[in-house]
Design brief:
Structural class: alpha+beta
CATH class: Alpha Beta
Number of helices: 4
Largest sheet: 4 strands, antiparallel
Mean pLDDT: 96
CATH superfamily: Dimeric alpha+beta barrel
CATH topology: Alpha-Beta Plaits
Low-confidence stretches: none
Length: 92
């Protein structure tokens, strides 16, 4: 199943993580661990935000994916299934 993981990082924690090098490490580890199809980064409400699109069929891996972001970055995380245009057309 294709999933979209959206995370936001509190400003203070993000600044600290950028200074000590853990921000880039945590994001790179996430992208690698999920074998991301795409990854985008922006600002949302003044906070660092990322969206990572990936395939995952084992729901038991959710803690493995989420916990490093929680622990390293105090991230808020949302995960939801997403469709490509082709997926949508097949479903319709």
């Amino acid at each position: 199943m294709r999933l979209m993981l959206k995370f936001t990082i509190p400003v203070e924690k993000g600044n600290q993580a950028e200074k000590d090098g853990t921000l880039g490490q945590a994001i790179a580890a996430l992208v690698k661990d999920v074998n991301a199809e795409a990854a985008y980064f922006a600002l949302e409400g003044g906070k660092r935000m990322g969206i990572v699109i990936f395939e995952e069929n084992d729901q038991a891996r959710m803690p493995v994916i989420n916990e490093p972001l929680f622990a390293a970055l105090d991230a808020s995380i949302e995960i939801q299934p997403v469709l490509t245009a082709d997926d949508l057309q097949r479903g319709l």
